[in-house]
Amino acid sequence: MKDGDFILPDVFEGFIDSEIMDIETYYLIYNFVALDNFRQGEYEGNMYVIRKINANHIQLENEVATENTPKPKVYIYTKKEFLGLLQSHKPSL
Question: What pLDDT digit, counting tens, does each position of 77-90 carry?
Protein backbone atom coordinates (compact mmCIF):
# COMPACT_ATOMS: atom_id res chain seq x y z
CA MET A 1 0.00 0.00 0.00
CA LYS A 2 1.14 3.51 -0.78
CA ASP A 3 0.83 6.43 1.64
CA GLY A 4 -1.93 7.99 -0.44
CA ASP A 5 -4.07 4.85 -0.27
CA PHE A 6 -5.08 5.63 3.31
CA ILE A 7 -6.45 9.07 2.51
CA LEU A 8 -8.24 8.44 -0.78
CA PRO A 9 -11.42 6.97 0.74
CA ASP A 10 -11.68 9.96 3.11
CA VAL A 11 -11.15 12.40 0.25
CA PHE A 12 -13.82 10.75 -1.87
CA GLU A 13 -16.23 10.56 1.09
CA GLY A 14 -15.74 14.30 1.63
CA PHE A 15 -16.41 14.89 -2.03
CA ILE A 16 -19.62 12.82 -1.91
CA ASP A 17 -20.83 14.53 1.28
CA SER A 18 -20.33 18.04 -0.06
CA GLU A 19 -21.22 17.63 -3.74
CA ILE A 20 -23.82 14.90 -4.26
CA MET A 21 -26.95 16.56 -2.92
CA ASP A 22 -29.48 14.84 -5.18
CA ILE A 23 -29.81 12.43 -8.08
CA GLU A 24 -29.66 15.24 -10.67
CA THR A 25 -26.26 16.41 -9.41
CA TYR A 26 -25.07 12.82 -9.34
CA TYR A 27 -25.97 12.39 -13.02
CA LEU A 28 -24.41 15.73 -14.02
CA ILE A 29 -21.10 14.69 -12.48
CA TYR A 30 -21.34 11.09 -13.68
CA ASN A 31 -22.09 12.12 -17.26
CA PHE A 32 -19.33 14.74 -17.29
CA VAL A 33 -16.79 12.10 -16.29
CA ALA A 34 -18.24 9.26 -18.37
CA LEU A 35 -18.71 10.98 -21.72
CA ASP A 36 -15.70 10.69 -23.99
CA ASN A 37 -16.84 13.79 -25.90
CA PHE A 38 -15.56 15.83 -22.94
CA ARG A 39 -11.83 15.07 -23.14
CA GLN A 40 -10.82 18.02 -20.99
CA GLY A 41 -12.65 20.46 -18.78
CA GLU A 42 -13.75 21.23 -15.25
CA TYR A 43 -16.81 20.69 -13.15
CA GLU A 44 -16.84 23.17 -10.29
CA GLY A 45 -18.89 22.09 -7.33
CA ASN A 46 -19.47 23.59 -3.90
CA MET A 47 -16.04 22.67 -2.51
CA TYR A 48 -14.43 20.36 -5.06
CA VAL A 49 -13.27 20.79 -8.63
CA ILE A 50 -13.24 17.79 -10.95
CA ARG A 51 -10.81 18.18 -13.83
CA LYS A 52 -10.65 15.88 -16.80
CA ILE A 53 -6.95 15.68 -17.58
CA ASN A 54 -7.72 13.59 -20.65
CA ALA A 55 -10.33 11.02 -21.64
CA ASN A 56 -9.06 8.50 -19.05
CA HIS A 57 -7.78 10.51 -16.06
CA ILE A 58 -9.68 12.58 -13.52
CA GLN A 59 -8.22 15.01 -11.01
CA LEU A 60 -10.09 15.85 -7.81
CA GLU A 61 -9.19 18.87 -5.69
CA ASN A 62 -10.80 20.26 -2.56
CA GLU A 63 -10.53 23.83 -3.75
CA VAL A 64 -11.74 25.36 -0.49
CA ALA A 65 -9.20 23.48 1.64
CA THR A 66 -6.27 24.30 -0.64
CA GLU A 67 -7.30 27.83 -1.60
CA ASN A 68 -4.46 29.59 0.24
CA THR A 69 -1.77 26.96 -0.08
CA PRO A 70 1.23 27.37 -2.37
CA LYS A 71 0.88 23.83 -3.73
CA PRO A 72 -2.65 22.40 -3.71
CA LYS A 73 -3.09 18.70 -3.05
CA VAL A 74 -4.90 16.92 -5.85
CA TYR A 75 -5.91 13.29 -6.27
CA ILE A 76 -5.75 11.49 -9.59
CA TYR A 77 -8.12 8.69 -10.54
CA THR A 78 -8.59 6.74 -13.71
CA LYS A 79 -12.01 7.29 -15.23
CA LYS A 80 -12.92 3.70 -14.37
CA GLU A 81 -11.89 4.13 -10.70
CA PHE A 82 -13.75 7.42 -10.33
CA LEU A 83 -16.94 6.10 -11.93
CA GLY A 84 -16.78 2.94 -9.81
CA LEU A 85 -16.49 4.97 -6.61
CA LEU A 86 -19.24 7.28 -7.78
CA GLN A 87 -21.54 4.35 -8.57
CA SER A 88 -21.02 2.94 -5.08
CA HIS A 89 -22.35 6.24 -3.66
CA LYS A 90 -25.33 6.72 -5.97
CA PRO A 91 -28.18 8.36 -4.09
CA SER A 92 -31.51 6.58 -4.04
CA LEU A 93 -34.44 8.02 -5.96
Answer: 999 999 999 999 89
